[in-house]
Design brief:
single chain, alpha/beta, Rossmann fold, 2 domains, five-stranded mixed sheet, five-stranded parallel sheet, 13% strand, globular
Length: 446
């Protein structure tokens, strides 16, 4: 069986193989800790065994719910923030037709997103466009009180009930929430919504392989069983494979070895725009997992070759505190040949007859060599193809490597205490009941 591959050779001019391999025993120990639940934040490692534990019946239930929704709606609005939507968006955008909104041949509903911001214009335009569209809602929140999704859900629920009536709206709303507590669980029980559970031991940014990610992915028409199968293959592979060939352990070790050498920024690059939102999901996963206690590698991303014409100069010659990780797809899903032009005014006849992907691959190789020559270490991840199976592998690879890498840094990769600061300030400024003392203090600062 082919797996995604990691190549660290283009980083070894900057860190020695010995400096990477010094993390071998620790990496293996941390992988065991994740599987046995003995490390920091072990209340939130339910995702580690998830690919092998999710049942056929659970997947069938998700697919049946998706099928029922698809019979009623043209658009599904996923209401959630952070890990409650980024994983689904990453997979859906990677697998969708690049021009999905113009692709009239697609019989699957269009999946849109709300509750990931508090932009009044965004919500106005979303609700305005939905006035003439048959839509449903997948609302995702453990508590049901997170400000951004709660505002969006309140607006969309009221709108849906006005358009189709309360009884029909009930059939078009799915809630993914806590098993027994919280405002959304209470509402879902009262209204009789179809529900799925967010397990207590799975944090949001590790939840893409739960109903949080799987339901929107299934509604969009993608094969969730293949996605989980790919994740299971990577789960097994990372457990069974020796350090020197284990992509997750090597990735965690190499990035920490580079961090020790002052490389504090990691740029995730791709040469296929379909992977843009994989990088957005990855940024939350690593930023929220590692960025604490004044530690952590800052995650950034670029889309090549587009961003070579904007960020390329800085990457080539800016501060030398960065390294790159490139995701490459070995075989594209389609074939396009460059035609010959008799006038050759653009001078491109030397490329005539070549596939576009060959040009893209040479751009990738040329960029890698230039950046390494310019002082930027490169790691290279190769996916055999862009499909559900290998996306499942990629997602699980990044998740398990993140847990190991966080433990190498000696932080808890599964909490996010710093996220609460902005919320407390916002509640105080909005004069939320219960925040009177904080309101008084913050107003004295303004």
């Amino acid at each position: 069986m082919e797996h995604i591959k990691l190549n660290i050779e283009k980083s070894l001019d900057f860190v020695s193989k010995e400096e990477v391999f010094k993390y071998e025993e620790n990496s293996k120990k941390h992988l065991t800790s994740l599987h046995e639940g003995t490390g920091k934040g072990n209340d939130y490692v339910g995702w580690v065994q998830l690919p092998s534990q999710i049942t056929e019946a659970e997947l069938n239930d998700i697919e049946a719910t998706a099928k029922k929704l698809k019979e009623k709606i043209e658009v599904l609005v996923v209401v959630g923030i952070g890990g409650s939507y980024l994983g689904a968006k990453a997979v859906n955008d990677a697998l969708a037709h690049s021009f999905d909104q113009l692709n009239s041949g697609d019989e699957n509903p269009l999946v849109l997103y709300a509750g990931q911001n508090i932009s009044e214009d965004y919500l106005y335009e979303l609700t305005d466009i939905l006035k003439s569209i048959e839509f449903g809602i997948c609302v995702i929140s453990k508590s049901g009180t997170t400000t951004e999704p709660a505002i969006a859900f309140r607006l969309l629920k009221e709108m849906l009930e006005e358009q189709v009536g309360k009884e029909e709206a009930r059939e078009r709303i799915v809630a993914i929430t806590d098993e027994s507590k919280g405002a959304l669980r209470t509402l879902a029980t009262q209204e009789g919504y179809k529900t799925f559970v967010i397990a207590d031991n799975v944090g949001g940014r590790y939840s893409v392989l739960t109903p949080v990610g799987l339901l929107p992915i299934a509604v969009a028409g993608h094969d969730i069983k293949e996605l989980v199968k790919g994740a299971k293959a990577m789960q097994d592979y990372t457990v069974e494979t020796a350090f020197e060939e284990n992509p997750a352990l090597l990735y965690a070790a190499t990035r920490n070895a580079l961090y020790e050498k002052g490389k504090g920024i990691e740029i995730l690059a791709n040469y296929n725009p379909k992977l843009h939102n994989v990088a957005e999901w990855w940024k939350q996963l690593y930023g929220e997992s590692e960025g604490k206690e004044n530690k952590g590698i800052f995650p950034a991303s670029v889309d090549f070759t587009s961003d070579l014409h904007s960020m390329g100069q800085y990457i080539q010659e800016g501060q030398r505190n960065i390294f790159e990780t490139v995701i490459s797809i070995a075989k594209p899903n389609h074939t396009v040949y460059i035609p010959e032009d008799k006038n050759n005014l653009d001078g491109l006849n030397y490329l005539a007859g070549k596939r576009v992907d060959e040009v893209n691959k040479m751009a990738e190789l040329g960029t890698q060599l230039a950046h390494v020559d310019g002082g930027v270490p490169n790691l290279h991840i190769e996916m055999p193809k862009l499909n559900e199976f290998y996306l499942g592998e990629l997602l699980y690879f990044f998740e398990i490597a993140c847990g190991v890498s966080g433990y190498i840094l000696d932080v808890n990769p599964f909490d996010q205490p710093g996220v609460e600061a902005y919320k407390s300030n916002m509640f105080a400024l909005l004069e939320k009941p219960g925040f009177e003392a904080e309101t008084k203090k913050i107003k004295e600062r303004l």
